[in-house]
UniProtKB/TrEMBL annotation:
Ranges that cross the membrane: none
Protein name per the record: Leucine-rich repeat-containing N-terminal plant-type domain-containing protein
Main location: other
Pfam families noted in UniProt: LRR_1, LRRNT_2
Family classification: Belongs to the polygalacturonase-inhibiting protein family.
Subcellular location: Cell envelope
Signal peptide bounds: 1-20
The species this protein was found in: Carya illinoinensis
Length: 326
């Protein structure tokens, strides 16, 4: 009598425990592959085959209804090697965040394009190399894309302007070359645009006249020509950083958006003078130093609240906070 009863209990327990695990077996298999590909790093110690990835594992989270892995996020440096292609086999992933991994190298794998539910992709402060991939434009639900502080090279793929939901695009602090794509003046939803600290050259595309960026940072590149298309009295732009480029245009003719709170133009070849309309702006930051500006700094608004270093090293700019005009 005892043996069949015991085996019944055993069988029920087995059945119950198999059903009580929330983790999807396909996701578990893929995550264990990812762990092996990263050479079993310390940060993934909790990923054990006999435990529940939705309950017991750190670094990942499961969707509460589907119990599928929806987030993978490693933010302390201990991953090494390349991002494994297996990452593309987590079809319910919405957040992929691998940052501050100095030993994470190699290219961004094409398998990432399979992650159609991805809304948040942050791979910043790593040592990734190769291009900014064109295939990222297939991730139509992306709202946030940050590849900054890496070793990415080549030109910016024009197709990124096809991402319809982007709030922010960070490609700053890489080794990107070539021009800013003309298509970046055609975003349907205009993201914050961060392209600073690269080796971008050529002019700002004329199509930027149609783009109302909330934030645009093009600083520390080798961009040239007329940057006045960035501005416009009908825009709602708040932060503009064009510093340390080769821009050359007449500042007197620029119509600034009323919304502008921060303007950095230092180290360019900008001529003309500071238009009196700038006294109407509610600026919290201004730096027009190291340009070719001339004439009197208009008196009023916030313009005298900045110190002389906001204005120094120009051709013949004068008046408070610089020495008075002769
Ligand atoms: C990166 O790799 C180097 C050389 O293998 C090692 O000394 C260092 O500790 C690693 N850094 C991290 C954050 O894992
Ligand atoms: C990239 O690797 C180099 C050494 O190869 C290291 O000095 C640097 O800190 C790493 N970069 C980042 C952003 O971690
Ligand atoms: C993309 O987002 C929309 C709106 O949030 C949603 O309806 C759609 O299912 C998402 N697509 C994928 C592939 O997850
Ligand atoms: C950056 O990439 C270049 C090749 O494109 C390579 O020579 C260099 O070592 C890389 N730097 C780092 C810090 O990984
Ligand atoms: C601003 O006005 C110009 C023409 O006056 C127009 O071409 C441009 O599309 C407008 N920009 C925005 C953001 O409305
Ligand atoms: C800049 O434009 C103003 C107003 O049109 C004009 O008076 C001035 O001569 C121009 N300055 C330069 C350097 O072109
Ligand atoms: C303006 O920029 C110049 C050049 O980088 C710098 O020396 C100066 O301190 C800056 N001033 C302010 C107020 O940001």
């Amino acid at each position: 009598m005892a043996t069949p009863l015991l085996s019944l209990i055993f069988f029920t327990t087995l059945l119950f425990s198999a059903h009580s695990e929330l983790c999807n077996p396909k996701d578990k298999k893929v995550l264990l592959e990812i762990k092996a590909a990263f050479n079993n790093p310390y940060v993934l110690t909790s990923w054990k085959p006999d435990t529940d990835c939705c309950v017991d594992w750190y670094i990942v989270t499961c969707d509460p209804t589907s119990n599928r892995i929806n987030s993978l996020s490693v933010v302390t440096g201990s991953l090494s090697g390349q991002i494994p292609a297996a990452v593309g086999d987590l079809p319910f992933l919405e957040t992929l965040d691998l940052r501050k991994q100095p030993n994470l190298t190699g290219p961004i794998p094409p398998a990432i394009a399979k992650l159609q539910r991805l809304t948040f992709l942050r791979l910043n402060w790593n040592n990734l190399s190769g291009p900014v991939p064109d295939f990222l434009s297939k991730l139509k639900n992306l709202t946030f894309l940050d590849l900054s502080f890496n070793n990415l090279s080549g030109s910016i793929p024009p197709s990124l302007s096809l991402l319809p939901n982007l709030d922010a695009l960070h490609l700053d602090r890489n080794k990107l070359t070539g021009r800013i794509p003309y298509s970046f003046g055609t975003f349907s939803k205009v993201p914050g645009l961060y392209l600073s600290h690269n080796k971008l050259s050529g002019p700002i595309p004329a199509s930027f006249a149609n783009m109302d960026f909330n934030v645009i940072d093009l600083s520390r590149n080798m961009l040239e020509g007329d940057a006045s298309v960035v501005f416009g009295s009908n825009k709602t732009t708040q932060i503009v950083d064009l510093s340390r480029n080769l821009f050359k245009f007449n500042l007197s003719k620029v119509e600034f958006p009323k919304s502008l709170t921060s303007l950095d133009l230092n180290h360019n070849m900008i001529n003309g003078g500071i238009p009196v309309e700038m006294t109407a702006l509610n600026l919290q930051f201004l730096n027009v130093s190291y340009n070719r500006l001339c004439g009197q700094i208009p008196v009023g608004g916030k313009l005298q609240s900045f110190d002389y270093s906001s204005y120094f090293h120009n051709r013949c700019l004068c008046g408070s906070p610089l020495p008075s005009c002769k």
